[in-house]
Amino acid sequence: ICELKNLVELNLSWNKLDGSLPQCLSNLTYLRVLDLTSNQLSGNLPISVFANLTSLEYLSLSGNNFQGSFSLSVLANHSRLEVLQISRLQIETENFPWLPRFQLKVLNLRRCNISGTIPSFLQYQYDLRYIDLSHNNLAGTFPTWLLQNNTKLEFLFLFNNFLKGLLHLPDSKRDLLHLVISNNNFIGMLPDNFGMILPELVYLDMSQNSFEGSIPPSMGYTVRLLFLDLSSNNFSGELPKQFLTGCVSLAFMNVSHNYFGGQIFPKYMSMTQLAWLYLNDNQFTGRLEEGLLNAPSLHILDVSNNMLSGQLPHWVGNFSNLDVLLMSRNSLEGDVSVPLSNLQVARILDISENKLYGPLEFSFNHSSSLWHLFLHNNSLNGSIPSALFQSSQLMTLDLRDNEFSGNIPPLINEDSNLRALLLRGNNLQGNIPQQLCHLRKIAIVDISYNLLDGSIPSCFTNIWPWMEEGDPFNGFVFGYTLVVEHFPAISAYYNSTLNLIFSGEDNRELRQRVEVKFMAKNRYESYKGGVLEYMTGLDLSSNELTGEIPSAIGYLQELHALNLSHNHLSGSIPRSFSNLKMIESMDLSYNKLRGQIPLELSELNYLAIFNVSYNDLSGPTPNTKQFANFDESNYRGNLNLCGPAVLKNCSTDLPPPPPMTPAEEDESAIDMVAFNWSFAVSYVTVIVGLLALLFLNSYWHRQWFFLIDACIDSCFYFWYKYVHYQQ
Predict the structure, then answer these.
(1) For residues 611 and 627, what is the distance between their CA atoms, to the nearest angstrom?
(2) Do residues 587 and 609 make contact, with C-beta atoms less than 8 angstroms apart?
(3) What CA–CA distances, in Å, run from 67 to 72, 84, 96, 488?
(4) CA 532 to chain centre
(5) In what way does this protein cross or attach to the membrane (predicted)?
């Protein structure tokens, strides 16, 4: 390539070139375009190469692995330079004073570890259209002068820096299309004339700052605005009417994690293009009005963690494209059966932690299209609809802490995709159905704090996430690609004979992560998104289960948490538990387990929580590896245990008595039926004999009644004396 002395444009972008740049590139003195974007080039950039290429108009080095630093002063004499794109490289801008001879149109210095204030050479630029200085260490205030000097500026990206202070805008209207200043330290209120100064905005992201006050009504002038993110600030007040009626093009709106209040969705709301709406974690109150019906293309609606009241609105069922409906942690109330039967939610439905009551009704057609259902912490009652277990699409069913009764539905679809079944804290009765093992993809089961009885099924080895490590399940994270319109092609700013690709971002990936709470390690853990894909657990605690622990549970090699506490389980701890190689938490406390703790359990290298308190275990406790960290609190209520953990020497104490055989247990056991009958007969015989004796002998008859009279007189005397003393 270096021999092509008359080469004008060189585009090697989006390949897999590695190694360092050859020094001989400095021979290409006629070169106007050099694009090496997105390769695997490394080493230090040869300064002499770029110093000699004074004809450069377009230089892009983004997306490589260059080391060292690069001073922009090397390009000071490149009077023709219009496009400069560098990323993932240490850029020096203020190492010594220099004046640029170029007038840039595009400047992209993302992830260049630039510190201090905005580079001073930009004060001499007056024709910029696109600026990206994001992901750096910039400090200081908002560069109002950039907007003031560059009247044709359309894109300004300053996110992920350390900028602070108030947001000041120019005095006159600007045609800025994209403004992204998220994740900085800006404070104060937005200017009242915000929408009048920047009426052409299409994309506005000011999230993760400390802005306060209300949204200025002038925001309603931004009629072309498609994307608005004001989340994670300190905004307050009601959403202004001018904003709700003026931003008619808005497709994405996120004002979550603020202090907005008042009613939402008034009837005059005219945001007809809304598809993604996040209003969660605010202070909105009152009933849900019907203004949102003007947005028929709604995909995601999140109004969780507010102070909304009233009944679940029937009109929510009118959205045919709704993928995600999140309304948890409010004060919604009323009978839930009718509104839920009308809903058409494809992926996530969460109306947990409200005041809903009544029976739960789901048609099979609806439940078969739903992926994740969260209804926990309400007052729902009746039986659990069997349609929920017949769906082939449902992945999460969370009905915790309600008032459901009856049995767990036995009709289970063998093709079920259910991954998390959470029925904790209800009034479910009967046995654990064997059909539960048909849920071969289940990873988390929590049916604790119910009234279940009978034995534990031994068929859990049919559930493959507990048995063997497989590919991670990806149903707990899904995304949407928001195509950013009006994003420029490089041809809009630079004419080239080659098809140059702009290295800026032209879309935004919206991630929706499912969250499940499960008791592990003695506390409620929240598992979300990718982490949830790897979590496995079984919690049958606080029921009335009986019988022995099936040895088959010990072969669930991929199980992370096991809780069988607070039941009536008997027998010994299965030695097969030593196969639970991934177990982190095991709770067998408050049962009737006997025998020794298998010493093989010391091979469980990940075990952090182990509790066998209040059983009838005996013999030495394991004291190697993980078990060396356990103390007496893990073994309370087992009087026959010995070892360092329980502060009891096994060698000096009498050995525990051998377990009795079934025949010995039968010989030593008391026949309670015979005992009760013999006691009743003896009691009646004594009473009848005493009455017969008093009836036949008149002397004893008189003495008996005399004794009774004397007792009555004595009791009356002491009572009278006590009352007189009190007066």
Answers:
(1) 11
(2) yes
(3) 15, 18, 21, 30
(4) 8
(5) Single-pass membrane protein
Yes or no: say if 463 and 440 are a contact pair by the CB < 8 Å rule. yes
Alpha-carbon distance of 705 to 252, in angstroms, equals 96
What is the C-alpha separation between 460 and 438, in angstroms, rounded?
A: 9
Structure tokens at 185: 């330290």
pLDDT single digits (tens) 19-32: 999 999 999 999 99
Dihedral angle sign, alpha carbons of residues 91, 97, 101, 102: positive
Q: Is 510 in contact with 479 (CB distance < 8 Å)?
A: yes
Taking a C-beta distance cutoff of 8 angstroms, is the pair 209, 185 a contact?
Answer: yes
> What is the percent of the chain with per-residue pLDDT over 90, rounded to a whole number?
63
Give the residue carrying structure tokens 């998104």. 529
Tens-place pLDDT, residues 253-287: 999 999 999 999 999 999 999 999 999 999 999 99
In Å, how far are 373, 419, 445, 446, 575 from 472, measured between CA atoms? 21, 12, 18, 21, 30
Cα–Cα distance measured from residue 587 to residue 408, given in angstroms and rounded to the nearest whole number:
24
Judge contact between 392 and 368, C-beta under 8 A.
yes
Give the DSSP H or E segment for 609.
strand 609-611
pLDDT tens profile 112-161: 999 999 999 999 999 999 999 999 999 999 999 999 999 999 999 999 99
pLDDT value of residue 664: 45
pLDDT bin (cut points 50, 70, 90) of residue 690 is confident
Closest CA to 634 of 623, 622, 645: 645
Torsion angle of C-alpha atoms 649, 651, 654, 657, degrees rounded to 10: 100
CA-closest candidate to residue 103, choices 89, 123, 87 = 123
DSSP single-letter state for residue 643: B
β-sheet bridge partners, residue 19: 41
pTM across the whole model: 0.84
Q: Which two tokens stand for residue 21?
A: 């740049």
* CA nearest to 328, candidates 343, 350, 360: 350
61 closest CA partner among 23, 20, 28, 105: 20
Close Cβ partners of 194 (under 8 Å, ≥ 6 residues apart): 169, 216, 218, 219
pLDDT at 392: 85
Q: Domains plus CATH for the chain? A: 546-646 (3.80.10.10)
The residue assigned the tokens 């992830």 is 111
Return the structure tokens found at 170.
């120019």
Read off the pLDDT of residues 438-473 as tens digits, 9 standing for 90 and up: 898 899 999 999 999 999 999 998 888 888 876 656
Burial 308-333 (b: 16+ CB within 10 A, else e): beeebbeebbbbeebbbbbbbbbebb
Q: Which of 73-77, 422-426, 489-493 has the lowest mean pLDDT?
A: 489-493
The structure tokens listed for 711 are 């007792």
Q: Which residues of 171-198 are buried (b: 16+ CB within 10 A; e: fewer)?
A: eeebebbbbbbbbbebeeebbeebbbbb
